[in-house]
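Researcher: I'd like a structural prediction for the single chain below. Treat it as a standalone chain; there are no partners to consider.
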Amino acid sequence: MAFQEMSDDFWRQAEPLLEPFKRKHSGGRTPLDFRVILNGIRYLLKTGCQWDCLPVCYGAKSTVHEHFQKWVHAGVLSELFRVMANAYQEQIGLQWTWQSMDGALVQAPVHGQSVCLAEEGLGRNPTDRGRSGSKLHLQVDQQGVPLGVEVVGANVHDSRLVSSTLATTIFPRPAPTPDDPQHLCLDKGYDYARVEIEVKDHGYLPHIRRIGEEKLADGAKTPTARRWVVERTIAWLKGFRAIRTRYVCQMPNYLALIHLACAQILFRKLQET
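Model: Treating it as a single chain, here is the predicted structure.
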């Protein structure tokens, strides 16, 4: 699998967040360059390899993993997601008028867990014979830019995750107005009266595909509402193998990898402009 090393532009965004972790005293072994360590984490994210299988060019596995743990606990990778969202807002602008939300199941054959622990975002996957699994629940803007993401057990229904996912939005949401309303597009899994009320309480105009609703005939006019952008973003996230199959036991570590992937998606969209 081809892996592209971090660009100078990406590193310029990440370096200030890592500055506080630099060694303050002299002596001892020469510390590993943080850019090399972050590249090693990105390599694991993209390929889904085990820590023990990291190429030696990224340094010792224990060193890379130790720094990863420190950065996760300090919220560095989540902050990198926020930094990229700010850059995107300044250069292109988030489009809040039409937003979408959806969930995706991932296998989670994590070791060391005798039961599916809800606090670790694990649950019995109803589509995988009750095996351990997780669910990514994602909110995106009109162009599919990730705004917020939540990790829960695979047995949690999408319709229960609207408010909690909106609470994870990485960038302050502008208040909707009568002249500039905000729409939220959802699929059949959210076709409940309580969800419609919940969406309206958050200031959105709900667009929920109804159970039993017929598909449009070929050539028929397509409505304005769009749900496919969130499905495309989920596909982008699953392009990172460490996300597509969850081998990470601790939920904060897994969520941090998702945030790093979202930061890379935002950076890639910035480079396309």
